[in-house]
Amino acid sequence: MHRLLLRVIDAILLLWIVTTLTFALLHLAPGDPATLLIAPTATAAEAEQLRVSLGLDAPLPVQYARWMRDVLHGDLGMSLSRSMPVRAVIAEALPVSLFLGGVSLLASFALGTLLGLVQALRASPRVDGWLSTLSLTAFAAPSFWLALALVALVTSGVAQLGLPDWFRLPAFGMQSPGATDAVSWSDRLRHAILPLLVLAIPGAAGVSRYARQAVRDASVAPHVSSAFARGLSRLRVEWRHVLRNALTPLIVLFGLTLPGVIAGSVFVEQVFAWPGLGRTMLVAIAARDYPVVLGLTLVYAVAVVSANLLADLMLWLADPRRRA
Asked: I need a surface site. Which of 112, 265, 283, 290 has the fewest CB within 10 A?
């Protein structure tokens, strides 16, 4: 309990540092959001009046104190460019990122762990080498390049390669224009295939390499040899003595990648025009929409800190040595 309390205090301090630095860097960067919100023909007096109404005329410490006071009361402010509460902007985009990030994360760990187990326990050295090469290539591929390559493949590439028409997938947006309610879910699933592939393929490749090494390290432990010497079957030894000991590093990896559920699809959302948190962040940065950028930064920071705390709890539950 004492250690958990210290971790919570550290998490709160980290959140304060991240948000404070983001606030300072945003406001010290060149440019003025008022110039992007006012008409080009506006006078200097009108521009100054807009800055006063937005609270941008106050000294930086005063602006920071006002923002921190509002955050502590659960108010993230109003979006400068969209004239709506920041909480509403985040609530509108959050389900999109949760869907893309959640499904891709589960698929990455399911496929990556299975591939790593096959490489470590079943594959021959030659097959293991080929799978390692493919996984390393997929892991190193930039997400934006992979996205554009898949878009080219499912559009013009389908006809050039002579593939069936059902390979032709929609490349942009969440739904086809004019789609009816009767086909909306199937249409959205077809639109989601490419973004999910772009997120899941590199993720599964990275998890497979991690799982392969974790299983190999666990399989050479002395207690595994003792289990074989006692006459236990190979399947039982692999399940009870190898896989369970390999869970600890995989849980750590899961905790480290969990924030990617909402923060790992920035470029994918931009390429495929999905209105999630990542695309909202890029638009807000371009518009110098301070409240939205700060609100999203706070969401990302809370996700990272919470994921680390969750990973600690999962390790405590999975490893009896930590409870001791």
From this structure: 283
* Domain match, 217 and 299 both: yes
Q: Which helix (H) or strand (E) holds 242?
A: none
Q: In total, how many domains does the chain have?
A: 2
Range of the domain at 18: 2-72
Taking CA atoms, 132 is separated from 34, 112, 318, in Å, by 52, 12, 28
Percent of the chain with pLDDT over 70: 84
- What does the DSSP assignment read for 144-191? HHHHHHHHHHHTHHHHHHT--GGG----SSSS-TT--TTTHHHHHHHH
The reply to whether 49 and 133 lie within a common domain is: no
- Opening angle at CA 137, ends 135 and 255, nearest 5: 55
Of the three residues 16, 39, 72, the one that is the final residue of a domain is 72
> Do residues 145 and 289 share a domain?
yes
pLDDT bucket at 321, cuts 50 / 70 / 90: low
Q: How confident is the model at residue 41 (pLDDT cuts 50, 70, 90)?
A: low
Q: Is the pLDDT of residue 35 over 80?
A: no
Distance CA 295, CA 18 (A): 12
